[in-house]
Amino acid sequence: MNEIKQKYLELKKATKSDVITRAFTKFAKYEDKYKKDLSLFTIKEILDTYIALEFTSFELLSNINSQLNAYTEWCLSYGKHHYEELKGLKINNYSSIHTNELHALIGNIEADKIITREELLEMAKELPNPSDAFILLCLFEGIRGRDYSEIREIKWEDFNGNKLHIVPGRIPKLYEGVNVPSERFITVSDELIAYADKCRFRTYYTPLIDTEKITELADEDFIVKRTKKARDWNKQPKLTRRIVEMLKYIGADISASDVRDSGKVYYINDICKKHNIKGKDVVFGSYYHDICLRFNDNIQRQTFWNKYNSKLTD
After folding, report:
1. Cβ neighbours of residue 193 under 8 Å, at least 6 residues apart?
2. DSSP class of 39
3. 284 backbone dihedrals φ, ψ, rounded to 5°
4. Largest Cα–Cα distance in the chain?
């Protein structure tokens, strides 16, 4: 890393793990290729570099572009007056790259992570524990909460036909330092209810990792039960790790967020079918509020459209 970047990182007090430090490391190879500092890259050279680096997350790519934009602004205001190799710097090309251009670089990759409801149900069948299948369907149908609290707190008594009453606050440990959200109601599928019913009478959990043994479950009212050996919530592993293991077990190269976004796509297309309208009409119209309410999430319309428009009803 050259002297210019070392100076900038010192000013920003950046560590090795910070985004800007990692961005400098990623770009080093392409600075050698173009024989100049990355602040001097043309728009084409920047976009070609982004393509070559094979980003799969818009959020990360957007963050890196923002960081490099700030670095180039510093080079324009300070660096070019102190470093010979920056004398020719006249414009910040990172600031000219539009969000849509970044989306276009990885949009297809993110859209490829979307699964259909049929695929989801097949995945659920492959899981040895009904509680794991239940968790998977919860994510798809809009149930999550902070640290998956909504999923952890569901009891059989909360179901009334296909209506689920979500009651936050039953496990105080999950809300330390934050306000307990309001109760809400959501319509769920027959399949989700069926897996919840199976969980009621399940007394053991089959581990998804070969090195672990079958574990007895605690006798309690929650659908997703704790284990007997770890009744204390402080000793319970987070669902984050369990979901990763679940998806790895069934060989699905997706994340919990991908499952959740797949659900959003499904319900948008369901609205399209019911009202004979296009996906764009839902995303940028009043029906979009129904999706936000189901997933209890303030979904950014344009970002969602840029990512997944190819999967929505045209």
Report:
1. 159, 162
2. G
3. -105, 15
4. 73
- How far apart, in whole angstroms, are the C-alpha atoms of residue 279 and residue 288? 10
Q: How far apart are CA 137 and CA 115, in angstroms?
A: 12
Residues whose CB is less than 8 angstroms from the CB of residue 241 and which lie 6 or more positions away in sequence, other chains included: none
Q: What gap in Å lies between CA 236 and CA 230, rounded to an integer?
A: 6
Residue 89, both tokens: 């710097």
* Cβ atoms of 141 and 192 closer than 8 Å: yes
Q: How far apart are CA 41 and CA 27, in angstroms?
A: 11
Q: What is the pLDDT of residues 112-142, one digit of tens each?
A: 889 999 999 999 999 999 999 999 999 999 9
Q: State the first-to-last Cα distance of the chain, in angstroms, to the nearest integer.
A: 48
What token pair was written down for 199?
């969980």
Q: What is the pTM of this model?
A: 0.73
Q: Can you tell me the distance from the alpha carbon of 98 to that of 47, in angstroms, rounded to the nearest whole number?
A: 11
What residues have CB less than 8 Å from 82, skipping those under 6 apart? none
Task: Name the pairing type of β-strands 204-205 and 184-187.
Answer: unpaired
Q: What would the pLDDT profile of 191-241 be if each residue is shown by its tens digit?
A: 999 999 999 999 999 988 876 788 899 888 999 998 887 655 554 557 888
| Residue 12: closest CA among 70, 89, 69, 77 | 70
Q: With H, G, I as helix, E, B as strand and everything else as coil, classify residue 204.
A: strand
H helices of the chain, in order, are 3-12, 19-34, 43-52, 58-77, 99-111, 117-126, 130-141, 149-152, 190-200, 239-249, 256-275, 279-283, 288-295, 301-308
Whether residue 171 contacts residue 233, with contact meaning beta carbons closer than 8 Å, is answered with yes
Residue where the block lists tokens 């459209």: 305
Inter-residue contact 92 to 45 (CB < 8 Å): no
Distance between CA atoms of 279 and 312, rounded to whole angstroms? 5
Q: Which two tokens stand for residue 285?
A: 């119209």
Cα 247–chain centre separation: 14
